[in-house]
Hints:
heterodimer, A: alpha/beta, two-stranded antiparallel sheet, 21 helices, 10 strands, about 50% helix, globular, B: alpha/beta, six-stranded mixed β-sheet, 13 helices, 11 strands, about 10% strand, disordered C terminus, binds zinc ion, Rossmann-like_a/b/a_fold (chain A), tRNA processing (chain A), sulfurtransferase activity (chain A), cytoplasm (chain A), CTU2 (chain A)
Amino acid sequence: MCTLNLSEYDTFEIEKITTTSFPATTIEAHDAVPFCKKCGNQETQVFLKNGNEYCKRCFLIILRHKFRATLSKSKSVHRNESILVAHSGKANSTLLLHLIATDTNESISKKPQFSFKVLYIDDGTAKGRSIKERESIQSALAKEAENLQLTMYILPLSNCVTDSICEEMQLVNAPLMNTTTSENTTVQEIFDNLENDTAKDELLQQLRLKLLVSAARKLNCNKIFIADASVDLAVKVLGNVSTGRGSQLPFNVAFSDTRYKDVTLLRPLRDFTRDDITGYLECYNLHPIFNCDKYNSSFPASIRNVTKNFVHKLDSEFHSTVPTIYRTSEKLDTKRMECENSNTKIDDNVDSDNNICVLCELTSNSSYLSKEQPTSVAQAKLFSKLVSTVADTSLSMMATNSLNIHELSSNEQIKSTNALKKEEHQCQSDIHKSFLKQSIIEKYLCYGCRLIFLNSKQVDNILPNFISNAIQKKSQIAHLEKEISDFLL
Amino acid sequence: MPIPCSRQCGKKAILKRPKTGHTLCKECFFYAFENEIHNTITQGKLFKPGDKVAIGASGGKDSTVLAYVLKTLNERYQYEIDLFLLSIDEGITGYRDDSLKTVQQNKDDYGLPLKILSYKELYGWTMDEIVAEIGKKNNCTFCGVFRRQALDRGAALLGVDCIATGHNADDIAETVLMNILRGDIARLQRCTSIVTAGADCIRRCKPLKYAYEKEIVMYAYFKQLVYFSTECVFAPNAYRGHARTYLKDLERIRPSSILDIIHSGETLQVKEGIKLPERRNCSRCGFVSSQEICKACIMLEGLNRGLPKLGIGKSTKVKRALESIAKDKCNDKCNGKCKDNEWIEEKDLEF
Ligand SMILES: [Zn+2]
Ligand SMILES: [Zn+2]
Ligand SMILES: [Zn+2]
Ligand SMILES: [Zn+2]
Ligand SMILES: [Zn+2]
């Protein structure tokens, strides 16, 4: 009997992967006397999964080189620039902080190259941490900053619900910022109303990014270092793909993310493996404030967490998977398609601005259909909803024309937008709370961000202020455009 | 308290759609499921009136449901296509009996013509004969390579315009993930296409592209369609197994994940300036190949020359053999009609 399964054929295709994989253990006893691969020294202390063995000194030199090479190759950082480093308290950013702190100290004879500021975003409210816990985290951070002689700021997540983001930047060694309870409650309410762990986790990631960028602006930094190591990037690649953000990969996992005009996000640890990080931390006897097992389970049933477990498992079984995943992402781009019914006469700049998601600030391109791609998930989802909710059988005939489906949904949007406008005149202040219909959310958010608010318990009162403000502004501009459209060439 | 059908038909719901979470009665579920496929077919312009369409039929649930729905929709909406079932018999004693029996049943139940093509007809060898030649150890290499081409060869032989396969949304999402894990950007770009192949060749299309596996099973259950339900006896390799488990976990956490992954695939493209492996046509048989001569032709040549290990061994041997084959003139009866077909498609049929 034939024992072939079609998937067995894969073994040919992934042969490369499996044969180059190595045993998963990092440090193990070796029979032969090991020699440092670099200097030939016998005192080998670091054993990497890829089979290389080094003495401590050489290992650390190699990592430093890797870090500098990544930065210099890209030519994206210049002398005397101010850089904001995002610190999460986890292993990767603990390493990054130590790396830059000791780097500037060692080259003290030379002119300091960059000026670093560090930011920790306190998202304890969203994760349900007690005040006490948050205080002890902050004091650990203050100690770390002092040891490394770095300027570190702390910014509570609740700042994203106040209209004045980052009015005053708080140093980490100052007492815990007395955020008003109402702000904290608002944050908690926003998160409680979301459907599931994935939505909560995704919103948190987006809000953290927002705060990070606003803080960078406030602190006059036009570069931000994010401590994503290769395994983090692999998790992001799969996480993005699984949450409908595939087209955002060129930004979300790139070495240099240029979605904001004035601030660039950089990922200088992208070539660091998990081994590199554990090895470095062991060599310097560093202890990250959050060790993975204790704190990472904030949103255990989130896609990101499931993806993390999946990637870590693969990484320990198939050594080359992680680099393969993130290198694959480097070769991918957002699909550019001519929108078939773009009948606006507005110039490109305004037009593209309108397609920017108010939450993640990336282009939202969910419903493009083309000759090469006559069907789309966005369209199929819309149709599924129609046939599962509307009793009118004539719909199925109507649906044979794609335009009708889109018209149907955009009519709905226009209705709501108009309603929003009416409301604006009546009661300006109440607007974010009372009248943000699902369809409005759909209009101003990208495919991935829309999923966050889909099926949330309450449609109104779930959006942070800045989102509703941005939506208002956009709908006003759209309104103006309409009024002057006859006179635009 | 009975839950009302979300289409407000007045009946009470008997199921919750795995895809959307809506609660529907049986009739409304049929209505929704069938109309979604109809919508995919019309939106994607999968068929033209007069097309001769082969349904790749394995007797499994996907192709059984596909056959039933296509037949139903063809009658209801007058696609005016000429539908028939196409099955491949590898010629392995005892192996295909049950699934072919199911396909036979489908033929009788739905009144669709059935054409079974054997490896003997397609390649001149049955798997049993190949096994006798090369021993049990390597037969799976042959099986896999031959199987990939079998539908295309069969369709070419029968002058078919279009092959409809039973790939569902779960299969496509899994393939997107696998291609990322393997770093296969070329296939990543292709695998979400609803129709593959160019103008002058046999099209392959996936009418179930947006249908959830769970809903396919539900549909078969409520319609009481007979299918060959034995789960795949072969465990997937470790790698694919992990990916499959991951996808199931995602679906459990957020049911829309399957579609969200396909959306990701649909909105991605290979960066400009990145070279993709050249896709060309086998100089012997004309089917798509990554090399001058496709693997199936190399293996066939080996069998015919009494060198059955050809094509299994390492690359240097193959290269030398290739050179010698390349010198021979193509004397194949193969019609090289297809220029841009998938040579390797994940899960050609659900065997
Ligand atoms: Zn050394
Ligand atoms: Zn977005
Ligand atoms: Zn109903
Ligand atoms: Zn086999
Ligand atoms: Zn060939």
